[in-house]
């Protein structure tokens, strides 16, 4: 099955969810006019992420149910254009009462095919997820669609090779990656997009926004502020870096620092052929007998560290 995928590098307007939703619907129209069958948007594409300055009322105003007002509007557009949409992410008010950072996949019939909850939320001042009451997901679902087997990973998930490797083993042929990283990380986004494609033998479709966030808090050490007081009120630029990768190649790329769309042709049979080829010539491609450190509870923190967290991490082990 061959079709065109579109990564929508939207310019997010701070504090105006409806303006961003209107723009997203217009970008779906634009992508459909170019023959795209599926669009993907960045993480928090309607609101920007929550920050450490926000109150519980601010977070509640950002959150929605899925299906809900925003996804219903996108579903209507999917019906009109006969396309699929990976709806970036938004804070979802889940049925169990918890908040999660959720990406919903909507089909051309307007129905939600499935949802993915970000499994590795972060707690930086500019993206304050656990501190805002956002819980991690605990599953890596692969969704069967008429166009192939799709998966989603969100933002920090992309920086961990275990996620795309797992999706490759689960047979995903396309992994959509909504991201929301500032301009200093544009080269990193492009690197991780290509690396994830190599790890998974799948297409990676990453979408990151452009635009400005005004007067938000960041880590002083990460953004060269003179002290933390200055770092609590930074104007932060976002530069895109959205693209579509297969192997070590970006086969589609948006224009950095500009609202634009990256397009590429997806061949859902390609990853199967690539995996079969590797299986025939690299019999020791995987050695799970050597990977015990990755799953030991004592080494669950990055690089074996044991950092004390000042906020609840909300991790609920699976039974």
Structure description:
With 319 residues, this protein is of the alpha/beta class. It has a single domain (2-304), classed as Nitrilase/N-carbamoyl-D-aminoacid amidohydrolase (4-Layer Sandwich), CATH 3.60.110.10. 24% of the residues lie in helices and 28% in strands. It is built from seven helices and 18 strands. The chain has helices at 17-33, 56-62, 69-81, 162-169, 186-200, 228-231, 270-281, and strands spanning 2-9, 36-40, 84-86, 90-93, 99-106, 112-117, 123-124, 127-128, 134-135, 143-145, 148-152, 174-178, 203-207, 210-216, 234-239, 243-246, 249-253, 260-267. Strands 1, 2, 3, 4, 5, 6, 9 and 18 form an eight-stranded mixed β-sheet that branches. Helix 4 packs parallel to helix 5. The longest helix is centred in the first third of the chain and has 17 residues, at 17-33. The chain is globular, with a radius of gyration of 19 Å. The mean pLDDT is 92.
């Amino acid at each position: 099955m061959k079709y065109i995928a579109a990564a929508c590098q939207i310019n997010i307007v701070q504090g105006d969810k409806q303006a961003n939703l209107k723009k997203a619907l217009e970008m779906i129209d634009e992508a459909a006019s170019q023959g795209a069958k599926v669009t993907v948007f960045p993480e928090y594409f309607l609101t920007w992420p929550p920050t450490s300055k926000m109150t519980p009322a601010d977070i509640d105003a950002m959150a929605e149910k899925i299906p809900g007002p925003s996804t219903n509007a996108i579903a209507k557009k999917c019906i009109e254009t006969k396309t699929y949409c990976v709806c970036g992410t938004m804070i979802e008010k889940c049925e169990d009462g918890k908040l999660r950072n959720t990406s919903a996949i909507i089909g051309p019939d307007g129905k939600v095919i499935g949802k993915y909850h970000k499994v590795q939320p972060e707690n930086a001042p500019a993206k304050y997820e656990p501190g805002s009451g956002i819980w991690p997901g605990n599953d890596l679902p692969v969704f069967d669609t008429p166009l192939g087997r799709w998966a989603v990973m969100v933002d920090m998930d992309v920086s961990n090779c275990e996620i795309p490797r797992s999706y490759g083993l689960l047979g995903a042929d396309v992994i959509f990656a909504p991201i929301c990283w500032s301009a200093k990380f544009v080269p990193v986004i492009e690197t991780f997009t290509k690396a994830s494609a190599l790890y998974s033998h799948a297409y990676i479709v990453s979408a990151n926004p452009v635009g400005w966030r005004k007067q938000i808090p960041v880590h002083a050490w990460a953004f060269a502020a003179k002290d933390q007081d200055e770092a609590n009120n930074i104007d932060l630029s976002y530069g895109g870096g959205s693209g579509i990768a297969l192997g070590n190649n970006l086969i589609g790329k948006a224009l950095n620092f500009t609202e634009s769309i990256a397009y590429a042709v997806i061949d859902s049979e390609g990853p199967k052929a690539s995996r079969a080829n590797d299986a025939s010539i690299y019999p020791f491609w995987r050695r799970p007998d050597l990977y015990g450190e990755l799953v030991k509870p004592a080494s669950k923190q990055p690089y074996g560290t044991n950092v004390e967290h000042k906020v609840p991490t909300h991790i609920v082990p699976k039974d």
